[in-house]
Amino acid sequence: MTNNIELTLLTAQDTESTRKAQAMKVTKKFSEFVGEARESVHIAIYDFRLDEGEAEIVIDALSNKAAAGMDVRVAYFEQNRKRKSEPGEDPAPGTDSNFLQRLHQDIKVKAVKGILDLPPDVKTLPIEGGGHLMHSKYIVVDARSVWMGSANFTTDAWSIQDNNIVILRSPDIAACYETDFAELWESGRIAGTGKDDHDDAEIDGVNVEVDFAPGDGAAMDQGIADLITSAKSEIVIASMVISSGNVLDALAAAIRRGVKIWGIYDGPEMDHIVRAFDRGNNGAGKTKIELWNVISKELVAKHSTPYSEDGPHDFMHDKLLVVDGYVVKTGSFNFSTNATKNAENMITMYDREIAAQFEQYIQGLVLKYE
């Protein structure tokens, strides 16, 4: 592992004590990362809900920075309670308004610039998708370092879901995230964001590319399919869902040409998608079912708890692809058609050591849930 790329690979814990221990470990990492800030903390988050122990530490970390006069802002997704989740989306009850209110109430010092206690000429901006999701989960500190990955800022995400977090210390990569954050913050909408934010940088000898949806969503989806098509020997997947027609086509074609494919997906979430395919009134849904029937034979399903607002959210929540033991894609971007129209982010890393760590992690998930 490099000094400036840090991986946190989370496996759902089985006991109350190990769940608490893992959630607290991530909470402390969050606090330490925010603690590095000397100028700014910018957060774009889909789901922000923490239990009491974790909440106190996170609130303190953010409040301390705001109290010190730093620019601390949180752009969060405001869930439309009347709208039902569509197949391929990330089910969640939405950011806890009471939690955000606590952030506001605890920042009482004069130098507060952010979260919800903004200057009079700046409006609070919950990001409303108008049918799609502000689905990112990232933090940018001082326009120099980025926390990103698949994990929402919830106790479940940090304890009973399978997730990954990547910290990247690179002003070049952070600049792209700052651009995306500014677009979301200024408009308060998803539309028009993420376009032409694609860039790459070398971090400790590792080439890292970054891209954002919805502006580049179609290109990101095609890029996943193209990477699968380029595979010569092995494709490893850990993805909550796989519903993109491009990705399904590419995976099935890879199987036909003899590429080894293995990995894991979330069973109940994919069952939901397959039922939606079956309800379609055209041949596209039937074709996707046929492709999925071929692909799913190579993968293991995690039998998570079917979604309910108040139930445990213990999904296999990763969005990971490793190809030929060298190329890794990960982020908030599900391998779904919906993801192309959401506010999302994804990185691609080219490195054998990093790829091996992700493969070992996915192998552990397969062994746990098979």
Based on secondary structure, the structural category is alpha/beta
Q: How many whole angstroms does the radius of gyration measure? A: 20 Å
Element-level helix/strand string: EHEEHEHEEEEHEHEEHEHEHHEEEEH
- Indicate the CATH topology of the largest domain: Endonuclease, Chain A
Classify the helix fraction into a percent range. Answer: 25-40%
Mean pLDDT: 89
Cross-sheet strand order for the largest sheet: 10-11-17-16-15-12-13-14
Strand content: 15-25%
Per CATH, the class of the largest domain reads Alpha Beta
Q: Please give the CATH architecture of the largest domain.
A: 2-Layer Sandwich
Q: Major sheet, described briefly?
A: 8 strands, mixed
Record field, number of beta strands: 17
What count of structural domains? 2
Uncertain runs are 104-124
What is the name of the CATH superfamily of the largest domain?
Endonuclease Chain A
From the N-terminal CA to the C-terminal CA, the straight-line distance is 29 Å
Spatial shape: globular
Number of helices: 10
Account of the protein in words:
This protein is α/β, with parallel strands linked by helices. The chain folds into two domains: 5-198, Endonuclease, Chain A (2-Layer Sandwich); 212-369, Endonuclease, Chain A (2-Layer Sandwich), CATH 3.30.870.10. It has helices at residues 16-35, 52-67, 97-106, 155-159, 171-187, 217-230, 245-256, 267-279, 283-295, 352-369, and strands at residues 5-10, 40-45, 48-49, 71-76, 113-114, 137-141, 145-149, 153-154, 163-169, 199-203, 206-213, 234-239, 260-266, 299-302, 319-323, 327-331, 344-350. The strands form three sheets. The protein has an eight-stranded mixed β-sheet, with helices on both faces. The longest helix is centred in the N-terminal third of the chain and has 20 residues, at 16-35. The radius of gyration is 20 Å and the shape is globular.
